[in-house]
Amino acid sequence: MILVAGGQLDPNIGRFLKRLIELDVPFKELIVGPDCNPSIAFELGDTALNIDGERVHPTSAFIRHDVFWSQQCRDKGYLPSVALNWYYAIRGWMLSNEKIRCFNRFSSSSENNKIFNLCHARKCGLQIGETLVATLSSSDIDRYLEIEAIVKPVAGGSLTTELRSSLSLSKPQTGHAPSVDYPRFVQKKLDRPEVRVFGVGDQVFAFSITSVDLDYRERHQAKIEMIVPPEEVVPGLKKLAGILDLTFYAADFMRDDAKNLVFLEINTQPMFVAFDNISGGRIADAAISFLEPSIERGGNKCLIT
């Protein structure tokens, strides 16, 4: 039985639950949100969970840290703490039970640092672009003004923007409080279509993403198509995933002037619902098969062997 834990407003959780129902896979949901306030209890080291008074014994778990509830609520100060404590508690129970199958077990205690990942991607044979890490106030970024360049936060949290526009916005404005500078990636602008590669266990799925926006997340009007995984990056990507102890991830690539795929970043809790819909459920199916290897497909349903 798969434990599915996460946010009520997370569309990725909704998509995964829908696929479990379609395939008739046994699961227990532990969902938190505006209409869901479950109770849990477990003794340290217990292999079972008490959920709303019911003692359940999951054999695997699919867990996501919820970021959606706080985004859709005016009072955002308390809800991030709620989401973090739910995620921390359930993942802690799961990690304490070695027989519970899950994704990215050993990476949970590691920082998913984008700078570290870029350096290791290069060691794994993946091509990375020339990259500077700097504050906008640094004179070191001046050489990037001679080319089309972009900037993005080193830890994420906001969209990719043009370097020139970011510099303009960072200048003090009359009547406004000064903005706080922070380190960012400064890189040459690359060409589309963007390529996203999902890894689920040993399986990989690839998609092209075409958008008129610099960052396709800006208006979510991108055209997504499933493609054959590019052989030029798959071996290196799998090697990188092995170094980072990842069994579920999504990596992003764009093309340079020579049309080579350039590694951008790897995400350990990727949004996958749109891509799964386009693939006909193949990402979710691969996740289910990884979490419960004893499940075999039989027609449109899953059979427990």
Structural summary, described in words:
With 305 residues, the protein is an alpha+beta fold. It has three domains: 2-104 and 290-304, no CATH class; 114-127 and 190-267, ATP-grasp fold, B domain (D-amino Acid Aminotransferase, Chain A, domain 1), CATH 3.30.470; 131-188, no CATH class. Helix content is 25%, strand content 28%. The protein is built from eight helices and 17 strands. The protein has helices at 11-22, 68-71, 79-95, 114-123, 163-170, 234-243, 273-278, 282-291; strands at 2-7, 27-32, 40-41, 49-51, 54-56, 60-63, 131-134, 149-153, 161-162, 184-188, 191-200, 203-210, 223-227, 248-255, 261-267, 295-298, 301-304. A five-stranded antiparallel beta sheet has the order 13-12-11-14-15. Strands 7-10-8-9 form a four-stranded antiparallel beta sheet. Strand 4 (49-51) and strand 5 form a beta hairpin. It starts with a strand and ends with a strand. Mean pLDDT is 87; it is low at 298-305.
